[in-house]
């Protein structure tokens, strides 16, 4: 075992595992990680590589060398969402399962979960729909930004200046800045990276833009976009208990609910069309003209509730 070390990043920081070897098994690794992260062994999720991708730990007898792990590698340790068999509903504060394959006939209400307006609302929303909970550590957005920058920099032909609106490397530097907002380009990259369709309910035009639709992914998630801010959508069962944020792509019912939500939002003017109207911040009454001023005001104050004048 001498000389073999793995760097393990967790939400509480980075640690180093030294008591393994290239001849250790995946089971040995899982035994170490469950103790290190204080995570049940059946809820361990490991990512590695750059950009990080899910590392397969299903073959308990496979050697670490056979799995491709070598001394000095860095892995990221996360906790999977609570499986449905272990859900506790006695307290509203308990984590609730967010993926369901068999609720096509289950009545529920499509609702939004408001996330902070901190320039990273897109990334916070994506994390919520994928994991069923808000990222409290604040570590997810920087990781997503880094992954997006790496993806874009490695494919300058696809991500050309014409597509990005600025040189490739300049765009990569821009998206790494925590004051920069994610949009369609980031949604396309995230859809491809996570292998899931992302349906964005546009309340300005009362339409749904589906990223990854042509890839025939098995599942989809939904976000609400009001012209400036993204919030995640989830299904609240009328019977209480679990929420659902990941849906089978053949669940046409949830798309119809999303379309109705978009229509209702547009008819009640729950959007911010910053390209066409003079705007007023409904929080501090500051007047603005156009998208640039609205974005600058939102970034400097955190205010995202605008009214049309």
From TrEMBL:
GO BP, sorted A to Z: endoplasmic reticulum unfolded protein response; ERAD pathway; protein deubiquitination
The reaction(s) this protein catalyses: Thiol-dependent hydrolysis of ester, thioester, amide, peptide and isopeptide bonds formed by the C-terminal Gly of ubiquitin (a 76-residue protein attached to proteins as an intracellular targeting signal)
Record-linked Pfam families: OTU, OTU1_UBXL, zf-C2H2_OTU1_C
Keywords: Cytoplasm, Hydrolase, Metal-binding, Protease, Thiol protease, Ubl conjugation pathway, Zinc, Zinc-finger
Cellular compartment(s): Cytoplasm
Superkingdom classification of source: Eukaryota
Boundaries of every UBX domain copy: 6-77
Listed EC numbers: 3.4.19.12
Domain OTU: 110-236
InterPro entries: OTU1_Ubl (IPR048857), OTU_dom (IPR003323), Papain-like_cys_pep_sf (IPR038765), Ubiquitin-like_dom (IPR000626), Ubiquitin-like_domsf (IPR029071), UBX_dom (IPR001012), Znf-C2H2_OTU1-like_C (IPR057766), Znf_C2H2_sf (IPR036236)
Keyword Manganese: no
Cellular component, GO, one term: nucleus
Broad EC category: hydrolase
Role played: Hydrolase that can remove conjugated ubiquitin from proteins and may therefore play an important regulatory role at the level of protein turnover by preventing degradation.
PANTHER family membership: HIV-INDUCED PROTEIN-7-LIKE PROTEASE, UBIQUITIN THIOESTERASE OTU1
Protein name: Ubiquitin thioesterase OTU
């Amino acid at each position: 075992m001498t000389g073999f070390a793995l760097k393990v990043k967790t939400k509480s920081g980075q640690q180093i595992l030294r008591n393994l070897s290239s001849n250790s098994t995946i089971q040995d690794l899982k035994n170490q990680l469950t103790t290190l992260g204080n995570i049940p062994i059946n809820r361990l999720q490991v990512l590695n590589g750059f950009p990080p991708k899910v590392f397969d730990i299903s073959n308990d007898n496979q050697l670490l060398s056979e799995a491709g792990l070598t001394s000095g590698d860095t892995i990221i340790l996360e906790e999977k969402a609570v499986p449905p068999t272990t859900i506790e509903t006695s307290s509203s504060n308990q984590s609730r399962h967010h993926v369901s394959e068999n609720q096509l006939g289950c009545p529920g209400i499509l609702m939004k979960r408001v996330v902070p307006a901190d320039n990273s609302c897109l990334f916070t929303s994506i994390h919520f729909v994928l994991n069923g909970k808000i990222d409290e550590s604040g570590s997810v957005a920087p990781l997503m930004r880094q992954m997006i920058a790496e993806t874009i920099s490695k494919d300058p032909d696809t991500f050309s200046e014409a597509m990005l609106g600025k040189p490739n490397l300049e765009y990569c530097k821009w998206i790494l800045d925590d004051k920069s907002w994610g949009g369609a380009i980031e949604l396309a990259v995230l859809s491809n990276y996570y292998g899931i369709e992302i349906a964005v309910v546009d309340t300005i035009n009362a339409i749904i833009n589906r990223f990854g639709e042509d890839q025939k992914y098995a599942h989809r998630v939904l976000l609400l976009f009001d012209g400036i801010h993204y919030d995640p959508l989830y299904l609240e069962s009328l019977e209480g208990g679990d929420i659902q944020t990941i849906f089978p792509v053949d669940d046409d019912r949830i798309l119809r609910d999303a379309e109705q939500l978009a229509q209702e939002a547009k008819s009640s003017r729950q959007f911010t069309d910053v390209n066409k109207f003079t705007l007023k911040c409904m929080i501090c009454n500051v007047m603005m003209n156009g998208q640039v001023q609205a974005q600058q005001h939102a970034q400097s104050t955190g205010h995202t509730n605008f009214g049309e004048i």
